[in-house]
TrEMBL record:
Organism: Streptomyces galbus
Range of residues in the leader sequence: none
Bacterial bifunctional deaminase-reductase C-terminal domain location: 2-187
One family name in Pfam for this protein: RibD_C
Classification via PANTHER family: BIFUNCTIONAL DEAMINASE-REDUCTASE DOMAIN PROTEIN, DIHYDROFOLATE REDUCTASE FAMILY PROTEIN (AFU_ORTHOLOGUE AFUA_8G06820)
The protein's name: Dihydrofolate reductase
Superkingdom of the source species: Bacteria
């Protein structure tokens, strides 16, 4: 069975919104777009590149799809990610889009949870969920996330969309690998391992 892996850039206080630029996602008046680059480093880029190696597909929500589809087809061909992003298979979950034109993109049909369950049963490599906070929330609620690959950066934003928002399903996580870069970013890979346990001191 294929694994669905949530790959997300986070601030220390858990914000995932608009890491890439000021105009990336200003939903709800968000004014901190572009927070990632000043607190990133080469080790982060190398880790993310490694995280993409076992994957042959991305699973995207509408907003992230539209951001990517407006950028990557004309991005710098010298960027090693450009051809990778354009060539990779993209599956798009949206209630409003009627077509997707970016190369190798497919619009999922019907209930998204059912569509992703069916996708996991197909042949292929890992499926990375990139950005797509609303979609990630849906997948988490339905127990469809097999792994989290998170870059947790040393900055506090104080507002914005969070990956683990209020109402997230309580879940225990097994650490697969956790390292820290020279500039303080935590590179964490975790797998869900059932419900949390509770105790007292």
């Amino acid at each position: 069975m294929r694994k669905v892996i949530v790959c997300t850039f986070l601030t220390l206080d858990g914000v995932m919104q608009a890491p890439g630029g000021p105009d990336e996602d200003a939903t709800s008046g968000f004014e901190h777009g572009g927070w990632q680059k000043p607190v990133s480093d080469d080790e982060v880029g190398n880790a993310v590149a490694d995280w993409y190696e076992p994957a042959d597909a991305m699973l995207l929500g509408r907003k992230t799809y539209e951001i990517f589809a407006s950028y990557w087809p004309t991005a710098d061909p010298g960027n090693p990610f450009t051809e990778r992003m354009n060539a990779m298979r993209k599956y798009v979950a949206s209630r409003t889009l009627t077509s997707v034109d970016w190369r190798n993109s497919t619009l999922l049909q019907g209930d998204v949870a059912d569509a992703v369950r069916a996708l996991k049963e197909t042949d292929g490599g890992d499926i990375n969920v990139v950005g797509s906070g609303d979609l990630a929330q849906t997948l988490m609620r339905h127990g469809l996330v097999d792994e989290y690959r998170l870059t947790i950066h040393p900055v506090i934003i104080g507002s914005g969309k969070r990956l683990f928002a209020d109402g997230a399903i309580p879940t225990a996580l097994e650490p697969v690998s956790v390292t820290t870069t020279k500039t303080g970013t935590v590179l964490g890979v975790y797998r869900p391992s059932g419900e949390p346990t509770y105790d007292s001191y």
